[in-house]
Design a protein that fits this description.
This protein is mostly beta strands. 0% of the residues lie in helices and 55% in strands.
Length: 114
């Protein structure tokens, strides 16, 4: 599975961005699809996760501000990020877990200026 992430950029605090991750195959039966992020000097951390059954999980730091969604027809997962904060600055990575194999997309930089 190849994952193509896009949508990063430079925004001011309080603004919004939407990240997209398009897969090279159908995502309808991909167990988990999610977004992780890694800030300089930090470990990569889970931001949001979408399961094939429809449930989602979010990091506490983004609950109420970020929304993950899937469009199976477009083989795409989105991360809507609202009320961005400077601490959201990181490289964001798309991830897919199919059976026991995990796949990463290339990162997309999100920079939030305060």
């Amino acid at each position: 599975v190849q994952l193509q992430a896009s949508g990063g950029g430079l925004v001011q605090a309080g603004e919004s961005l939407t990240l997209s991750c398009t897969a090279s195959r159908s995502i309808a039966n991909i167990n988990y699809m999610g977004w992780y992020r890694q800030a300089p000097g930090n470990q990569r951390e889970l931001v949001a996760l979408s399961r094939s059954g429809g449930s989602t999980n979010y990091a506490d730091s983004v609950k109420g501000r970020f929304t993950i969604s899937r469009d199976n027809a477009k083989n795409t997962v989105y991360l809507q990020m609202n009320s961005l904060k400077s601490e959201d600055t990181a490289v964001y990575y798309c991830y897919a877990l199919l059976a026991v194999l995990g796949y990463w997309g290339q990162g997309t930089q999100v920079t939030v200026s305060s």
